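Blackboard transcription, Thursday session:
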Amino acid sequence: MAVATEAEPRPAPPARRRGSAPYGWLKPGILLGAFVPVASMVQRAASGGLGANPIAEVENELGLAALIFLVAATACTPFRRLFGWTWPVRIRRELGLIAFFYALTHFLTYLVLDQFFDWGAIAADILKRPFITVGFTALVLLTPLAITSTNSWVKRLGFKRWQRLHWLLYPAVALAAVHFIWRVKADIRQPLTYALILAALLAVRLVLYLRKRYAAGETLS
Amino acid sequence: MRRLPKDSPSSEITPEPLFWRRREFMKNAGLIGGTALVTGGSLQWLVGKSPPPDAPDTPPLPIAQLPSVAQHGQYDTAEPLNSFKDVSTYNNYYEFGLDKGDPSDNASGLRTRPWTITVEGEVANPQVIDIDTLLQWFPLEERIYRMRCVEAWSMVVPWLGFQLSDLVKRLEPTAKAKFIEFTTLFDPKQMPGQRFPVLEWPYVEGLRLDEALSPLTMMVVGLYGKMLPNQNGAPLRLVVPWKYGFKGIKSIVKIRFTEQQPRTSWALAAPDEYGFYANVNPAVDHPRWSQATERRIGELQRRKTLPFNGYGEWVADLYAGMDPRRLY
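(Written on the board underneath:)
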């Protein structure tokens, strides 16, 4: 006993250095995990594991990964507001950029492997087929968000304007969900599951937004 | 009294800052790895598909017990065949699941013997035919046909069967019979996909009687010289090569001759997308995608889709005077 009291207090771990902020492991961990589907597709492509129609398989898997990351990015703010978690917001930019990566490779697969630069057919698809129109629109909406995702763009636009621009995420993710529903032939259980999760997230977002506006309006009047 | 261990020599003691850094490094590496594992694992679970199953090992058709196999060749295409593996593991057969690989995974539980086919409706000889009796009625013939799916992919398949026209003549439809309606087995225990109301079960398909009498229309019992694998519609299916694949109803238990046009499953599920005729037509798009081109399974580039899937010289006359836009 005496030994314990006489011993010098145990030194505290040194203060954290920059870059090892709390949850510093989260971003690299997610980045690493986010590319598991790509690695799996490459491995299966090499071993014939993508089935009889590998182009369609790759197109489908990339598109679904894009939707999952879009939904995850949409969930960040509701999670913080509902449960007080801050870590989702820290990885929101990363989730959004991964979603854009998958959406872009999904489109490039369609452009190069599926249609092989048949511009006439692609234009007809985008103009005449609602499911492709909405999918393509979602990608177009996401593009400025990906470009302006850096801190310097936040500064350049000013936070308020930057934030307003990034509300484009909401129509984009809604269109992506519709794209999936309209694409399916008969069984919409899987696309509907994503659409319902998304609808719940958007509803939370809308309620929080309206409450904030209402509260602001009350204090002003 | 227990002896305390001796102190380590000071040279072996890790300097404190290094100790903390190493500890932090190990902890971070573990956390990063764990996060990557959880993220990647759940993502792959949601997105990825397991590789396709191996081709089934179906018993060869007992040719010895059957009438001789005739070789006609008149309607055969000379295009390269799709492999048995592709034909038997890439299937649309919603009774066994919605993914292309599901039927080959789930269809092994289907019992195809004993099996009977009920013949009813506007017919002189309504009866219940045992499948093995039916197999003795007609010589089997191999037909190498293009198969064009409504989803814009296609295959070349060596089917084994007999002409539906031979069966129709033997059954003697009455003068009132204008259509022929086929029904798939309904048994959710054997066909797990029927537990979900994706389509109205059981699956129903049909043809106009003159379409049924075309020499191209086949009742199929095998492929690649073997018994039909369950996922391809064992023990008896329809093949109508100038129509989209969904017309080729599988695992048939009932044939009914009718005066009225049958209410077919896909036409019921989405009448503006799938019609009764469903003739392959590159000029009439599916409302949600183009039918102008198709991907032949195994090929990289798309190829042009042919009117009537290339069988127009034998079947276009059936539709003389009809608006081709109504023939989807």
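Lecturer's comment: Chain B touches chain A through 52 residues (CB under 8 Å).
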